[in-house]
Write a structure and sequence with these properties.
The complex is a heterodimer of chains A (92) and B (1072). Chain A has 92 residues and is mostly helical. Chain A has three helices and two strands. Chain A has one domain. The two termini of chain A are 34 Å apart. A five-stranded antiparallel beta sheet of chain B has the order 4-3-7-6-5, with helices on both faces. In chain B, strands 8-17-16-13-14 form a five-stranded antiparallel beta sheet. The chains are: A mainly alpha (92), B alpha+beta (1072).
Chain lengths: 92, 1072
């Protein structure tokens, strides 16, 4: 079950569209007005909310990039990218 | 407490470590190994982004304005998302085009514009000034702090702040020397510096480690962890929430937030040093993948303790003043000077790394885009390479000392981060043209220049100028009242835009004009041809290569040799580099018989030379160098005359090409008349391709090329020329080498004889195409001449002409074969007719009727196997009752045999009456004919008999002939008449035996040639003498004539109706 899901997930992650979506998502989450959600004088576990949000969000975004990269490598090494339309230049 | 000596000593040790790392990396590089070609080093080297701004300034910002410092690092993390597409594309383009810097990249994209390259360089030089100043300020201040901190308590130790005035200068000097050592020890043909990158990677480790150590110390030793710091800060909730939220001034803060995010997203790519490390020093595209998440992790880690240190500093010192140097001062204040030294080294690392890469990157731009355009105007000289490397070193010093100058001017007015942001805003000006350049085809040079220039102007006016003014360096009220009192133009509130921080204000206006100018000019104005070529190389870098133009569309007006290119390259990149580059290039291209490359290859060679030079002087300068060199020797790149000017088909062939091929095929198929084919083909070529004259010359039997057809102008001296194919004419060479020869511009013609002729007739270009079938020697030459068009003959055009000439060769061949066949047929008919005549003559040489002799009855017949034969018989009357009978057979059945037979007859006729006896006649005949027979290698067998009807005596002699047969009547058997004697023509003197036989009435004598007895049936059985004898026995009562008929019939039956293999002759005599 898991390998199937993983493969499906990785194939989607190799689409250029996925990259663009996450890039834009990142921009939105970093910008007004989304950021105002966390712009509050509140502390969680003694740590200010905005600071916590930024640090956690940062780590998550790094993990997402990591997933993308792994997906790219995985799909490439398993040569599954025939129907994903993965970028043009690869096969040069 | 640390002495100056210890700080300097440790710093020197650290510098030595860096240098040995760099040295080791370069040694390895020379051996062909690379210690930096891995994703770890690549990711670490990108961390050159974290400078002393990060190291000291982040804490300062966190302690004064709060969390917005994080955006400087969150932005790049976000940008990293795009790297696999954006950065990889840039890297690929840079590699394919030997790009050396961001200025080179932008100017290359827009038609290798020198102006654009120079503009970007100037912006980089000025834009980077504050950033360098920041590093100098950080290094000198921290040095003073770490050395002088005790002087607050112990002023006597070092006198009155002994170094303060000079530390910045000394730092600038040391960092410049660093830049030279790591980046400009020698001129290389590629701008990759393994040593530099290795040192940067080490520095990245050092600065991260030292920051983490200090962070852990402050967080966990001065305080009880992060939560503890926040809890303590809660005692002053207003300050805490001011620093950890946007505060209450929403709109402006959000705008600032927004600005910082985008400005840093751009900076990670467009700062000259980031571009250098990310793109130029990239050793494999795959490394980008790893760097995409490793670099953000680095950023995350180095910022992990910024807030704890900042808040801790505020708590520890009681205020945020001097927060920029908390990293250093907290360990000092808490009495840990060694920790402070570690922090100092980390900060020094951060600053040194940045200055090194930045100065090397910008000095490369300085050299290639500001100095080179001047240098290329000069004649290349051998010492250029020495000059260039020293200019590059000068560039490094220039970059650093411009920073120093700015530091002196602005000094302490701004905080570290704010100085750095000025540079970020400058780098952002490259963004629109760079990103637009690789994704938007329409973006053009004028758009890029106007966009970048306007953006730069706005940046200068709204950001750099205020920073200088605020430093009090220039006493003016421009900031308050605007220039000349025009408030509308106030630098910090341009066009009345107020309410924003200066960064947002500046970024808004500079980007507005930058993007606006770029888009407007790109849409309104046109790209030139050179730009379009570059657009393909940039925008379509990932497109499959076959989309490139299928053939060369450029030519050099005057051919250049390989050595000339090599010499040119040597002057800029050194001799050995030039030679190794050219040999690598030639490995993959064709070289013609004269050791040069073909004319079609020259534009490629020129581009290769440019590309090779580009790796060391930048594309724009390289282009200019080659162009000016070519113009010096009177050559230039020019478009070929596009013969297929109308519609270009999608396939590799143009529609014109296909049309001409089709028409040519129709002409060839339409008629068998070679002259008509040649005329029509020439006419077709002349009309379709605007030739002034077209000629076909074919090789005649003497080997001379003679004109067979021409169309066009009556240029007598060309048309009338019949050419002996020799190597000193183009046409001769085309014919002898079986290879098309063409001259695209008769001004640069090499063969004197042709030159004179072409000048006389005013020909500007011509080509000679050998008329030859594939793999066969040529039959002639197809020549085409143009009076008006230079550069007519392109590779595909020559290929088309060659193919047409091949078709023509086929037609010529077919024509000559047909003619040969017709001739042979005529010949056959003639020979056959001659042979018939010869046969008739020969038959007429034989007696028409046998002699009428009383006492004997005769019959005779000859059937030649072919038209003429070698058989012969004759009768000679000797008085009333005597007759001589002769039968002979010349060996062979050829005309030769017939001729010899005729000769024999003549000689015999003369001899018969001279000599008397049969033996004597044969002997004489032999002597007379011997020589002729020997010469003709023929022989004659002959039987000669004399019959006297009165006495019925037969006297005979035999020269090797098959003996005649006598059938003496009923129930008897056949007898043969034989006598000794040699065949005629074997020996000169032969004596022939004469014999004599008494015949009786009714005897039948048969004289015959061996054609009868040797006739074969299909089983190979001979007719034989026995059968012959049988016929005589059966028919001896009949007439001689019936005997002959019977014999012939039986022979024909025996041989199964097949034609006779040998002549058949016989004479039958019946004694009455």
């Amino acid at each position: 079950m898991w390998p199937k899901i993983r493969m499906a997930l990785f194939r989607r992650l190799c689409l250029m569209e996925s990259w663009v979506i996450f890039f834009i998502l990142g921009l939105i989450m970093m910008d007004f007005p989304f950021i105002t959600i966390f712009d509050k004088p509140v502390t969680i576990f003694d740590i200010p909310l905005l600071y916590l949000y930024l640090q956690a969000g940062w780590l998550i975004s790094i993990f997402v990039i990591y997933l993308f990269v792994k997906a790219n490598i995985f799909v490439k090494t398993n040569n599954l990218n025939k129907d994903t339309g993965q970028n043009e230049g690869e096969q040069r | 407490m640390l002495s100056v000596e210890i700080v300097i000593g440790v710093s020197l040790l650290y510098i030595a470590l860096l240098f040995s790392v760099a040295y080791y990396a370069e040694r390895k590089q020379e051996k062909g190994e690379s210690i930096i070609a891995n994703p770890y080093v690549y990711s670490l080297s990108i961390a050159v982004y974290a400078t002393s701004w990060t190291f000291y300034g982040s804490v300062g910002k966190a302690a004064t304005t709060g969390l917005d410092f994080l955006l400087i690092y969150l932005g790049p993390s976000l940008t990293a998302f795009s790297w696999w597409y954006l950065l990889r594309k840039i890297v690929r383009i840079a590699k394919e085009n030997n790009i050396t810097s961001i200025a080179d990249f932008i100017s290359s994209r827009y038609g290798k514009s020198q102006w654009l390259g120079a503009l970007v360089t100037v912006i980089a030089l000025l834009g980077i000034m504050p950033y360098i100043a920041l590093q100098l300020k950080a290094v000198s201040t921290t040095f003073d702090i770490i050395c002088n901190y005790p002087t607050i308590q112990l002023p006597f130790m070092h006198g009155q702040a002994p170094l303060t005035g000079h530390t910045a200068f000394i730092s600038a000097f040391i960092l410049s020397v660093f830049g030279v050592i790591f980046g400009a020890r020698h001129l290389v043909s590629s701008e990759r510096h393994e040593g530099l990158v290795a040192a940067i990677a080490v520095e990245s480790i050092v600065k991260l480690a030292s920051f983490l150590i200090v962070g852990i110390f402050i967080t966990y030793f001065l305080f009880n962890g992060i939560s503890d710091i926040f809890v303590r800060m809660k005692a002053n909730p207003a300050l805490l929430y001011q620093l950890t939220t946007f505060g209450r001034t929403n709109a402006v803060s959000y705008a600032n937030w927004f600005t910082l995010l985008y400005i840093s997203m751009g900076a990670i790519m467009f700062l000259p040093r980031q571009f250098h490390i990310l793109v130029i020093e990239n050793s494999a595209e795959e490394h980008i993948k790893d760097a995409m998440w490793r670099f953000p992790i680095y950023m995350f880690l180095i910022n992990l303790f910024v807030v704890p240190i900042a808040l801790g500093g505020i708590l520890y010192t009681g205020s945020s003043s001097g927060a920029d140097y908390f990293v250093l001062t907290l360990p000092l204040k808490s009495g840990h000077p060694w920790l402070a030294l570690i922090a100092f080294l980390g900060g020094f690392s951060a600053a040194a790394g940045m200055v090194m890469v930045e100065s090397v990157a910008v000095s490369t731009m300085f050299l290639n885009h500001l100095v080179m355009p001047v240098i290329v105007k000069l004649k290349p000289r051998a010492w250029f390479s020495i000059l260039l490397i020293n200019l590059k070193r000068f560039g490094i010093f220039l970059v650093v000392f411009l920073g120093y100058l700015y530091h002196r001017i602005v000094g302490e007015t701004y905080m570290l981060v704010n100085i750095g942001l000025i540079s970020f805003a400058a780098a952002a000006q490259f963004g629109p043209s760079l990103i637009g350049g690789i994704y938007w085809r329409k973006g053009n040079k004028k758009g890029a220049i106007s966009g970048i220039f306007l953006g730069f102007l706005l940046w200068f006016y709204t950001l750099l100028l205020p920073s200088v003014v605020e430093a009090g360096w220039w006493q003016t009220d421009i900031m308050v009242r605007g220039p000349f009192g025009i408030g509308f133009l106030k630098p910090t509130a341009l066009f009345g835009l107020t309410g924003f921080d200066i960064w947002t204000h500046s970024l808004f206006w500079s980007m507005f004009f930058n993007i606006g100018g770029y888009l407007a000019c790109s849409i309104i104005l046109q790209q030139d041809e050179k730009e379009m070529e570059q657009v393909r190389k940039f925008v379509d870098i990932f497109a499959p290569p076959q989309e490139e133009a299928p053939w060369e569309a450029k030519r050099l007006s005057k051919p250049i040799t390989i050595m000339q290119f090599v010499n040119l390259m040597s002057k800029f990149i050194g001799e050995s580099q030039a030679h190794s580059a050219i040999s690598e290039y030639l490995g993959e291209s064709e070289i013609d018989e004269r050791g040069g490359v073909s004319e079609f290859e020259l534009p490629n060679l020129k581009r290769f030379t440019e590309k090779t030079l580009a790796a060391s002087v930048g594309a724009a300068a390289a282009g200019a160098i080659v162009e000016s060199y070519l113009s010096d020797i009177g050559s230039k790149m020019e478009p070929v005359y596009d013969i297929y000017s109308k519609v270009r088909a999608d396939l590799t062939e143009s529609s014109e090409n296909l049309y001409v091929r089709l028409r040519a095929s129709e002409i060839m198929a339409g008629t068998k008349d070679l002259q008509a084919i040649m005329d029509e083909l020439l006419d077709l070529l002349r009309r379709e391709f605007k030739f002034d004259l077209t000629i076909i010359r074919l090789r005649n039997d003497e080997g001379i090329l003679t004109r067979r057809s021409y169309q066009g102008e009556e240029l007598r001296s060309i048309i009338e020329r019949s050419v002996q194919p020799e190597i000193n004419t183009y046409i001769g060479e085309a014919f002898l080498a079986n290879k098309p020869q063409f001259v695209n511009d008769t001004q640069h013609i090499l063969k004197p004889e042709s030159k004179e002729l072409m000048e006389r007739e005013g020909i500007t270009s011509f080509a000679h195409i050998p008329i030859a079938r594939e793999g066969e020697p040529p039959l002639g030459v197809l020549s085409v001449f143009s009076k008006s068009i230079v550069g007519l003959f392109t590779q595909p055009f020559i290929a088309l002409l060659t193919s047409l000439a091949g078709q023509l060769a086929q037609a010529v061949k077919i024509d000559s074969e047909m003619k040969a066949k017709e001739k042979a047929e005529l010949e056959n008919v003639r020979v056959a007719r001659d042979m018939e005549i010869a046969q008739q003559i020969q038959l007429s040489l034989l007696p028409a009727t046998p002699p009428d002799l009383t006492g004997a009855e005769f019959a005779c017949r000859c059937l030649p196997a072919t038209h003429v034969g070698g058989d012969y018989y004759d009768f000679f009357r000797r008085g009333k009752n005597v007759v001589d009978i002769v039968i002979a057979d010349v060996s062979g059945h050829s005309v030769g045999a017939a001729l010899i037979m005729a000769e024999t007859r003549s000689v015999l006729r003369a001899e018969v009456y001279a000599a008397g006896s049969a033996g004597k006649i044969l002997a004489n005949l032999n002597r007379l004919l011997y020589e002729d027979l020997t010469r003709a290698e023929l022989f004659i067998t002959m039987f000669y008999a004399k019959y006297n009807a009165d006495t019925r005596q037969l006297i005979y002699a035999n020269a090797g002939h098959n003996p005649p047969m006598i059938y003496p009547g009923e129930k008897a058997s056949c007898r043969e008449l034989d006598a000794d004697g040699l065949i005629l023509g074997v020996k000169q003197d032969v004596i022939f035996e004469e014999r004599n036989i008494q015949l009786n009435r009714g005897d039948m004598v048969l004289f015959y040639t061996d054609g009868i007895t040797e006739a074969q049936n299909d089983r190979g059985e001979l007719f034989g003498a026995e059968r012959l004898c049988g016929i005589l026995a059966e028919g001896y009562q009949g007439t001689p004539e019936t005997i002959i008929e019977t014999i012939l019939r039986k022979v024909v039956i025996h041989s199964g109706g097949a034609s006779l293999e040998d002549d058949i002759s016989m004479v039958v005599m019946k004694v009455d």
